Amino acid sequence: MNEEPKWYAIYTRQRWEKKVAGLLEKKGIECYCPLNKTIRQWSDRKKVVEEPLFNSYVFVKTIEKMHNEIKGLSGVINLVYWLSKPAIIRNEEIDCIKSFLKDYNNVRLEKTCVAINDTVKVTQGPLMEYEGNVIAIKSKTVKILLPSLGYMMVAEVEKMHIKKVNNEGPYEGYRQISREGSIRNR
User: Fold this and answer.
1) How far is 146 from 152, CA to CA, in rounded Å?
2) Of the candidates 92, 71, 88, 77, which has an alpha carbon nearest to the alpha carbon of residue 27?
3) Where are the domains of the chain?
4) In the chain, where do the E strands start and end?
5) What confidence tens digit (pLDDT) does each residue in 139-177 have?
6) 119-185: which CATH architecture?
7) Residue-wise pLDDT tens digits, 94-125
8) CA-based angle 78:84:89, to the nearest 5?
């Protein structure tokens, strides 16, 4: 039974992304180093250059038994791990990155402290002390789903006015609508 190749993320030495991608290609290993087209200004000219979108990361599509060979390549530090296993990147995510970079130049990555479906508590404003789930993230605001009384209210809240809730213990005032539509305390 043949193993289906999957996408993995490789952590590389700083500024070695293109070199590692080249080494992988020479070995016949499918890889993807997302390159962002940016305009660089010199004193006498402007030039469009391609720089790696993700610093120190290259994506590789391979089977698990090739991991040791890949880790042995010059410039490769390790595979990226999640829960003590090499992190598998979904095909849809790779396709989304490719499509986005094809359509847009000068793309910026922004790290965010919250993610879709995180539970957060509003710390300021009229919704102070309410909890809800993040359903969308914008540049300065987060859309939070605030279930109460059997209705779904959606509020846009400034990022600086929320804090991520520790999911280890219950929050007494938060109610959640179950899949069947009934309300249950959480």
Assistant:
1) 6
2) 71
3) 6-103, 119-185
4) 6-12, 30-32, 35-41, 46-52, 57-62, 76-79, 81-82, 85-86, 88-89, 119-122, 131-137, 141-148, 151-158, 162-164, 175-177, 183-185
5) 666 666 655 444 455 557 777 888 888 654 333 333 333
6) Roll (2.30)
7) 988 888 888 877 777 766 677 777 888 888 87
8) 65
Query: What confidence score (pLDDT) does residue 18 get?
Result: 96
For CA atoms 5, 9, 13, 16, give the dihedral sign. Answer: positive
C-alpha–C-alpha distance, residues 16 and 9, integer Å: 14
| Sign for the pseudo-dihedral over CA of 120, 152, 157, 130 | negative
CA dist 29 and 72 (Å) reads 14
**3-class SS of residue 73:** coil
The larger pLDDT score, comparing residue 3 to residue 108, is at: 3
Q: How far apart are CA 97 and CA 35, in angstroms?
A: 10
> What does the alpha-carbon distance between residue 33 and residue 56 come to, in Å, rounded to a whole number?
10
Report the residue count for the chain.
186
Q: What is the CATH number of domain 6-103?
A: 3.30.70.940
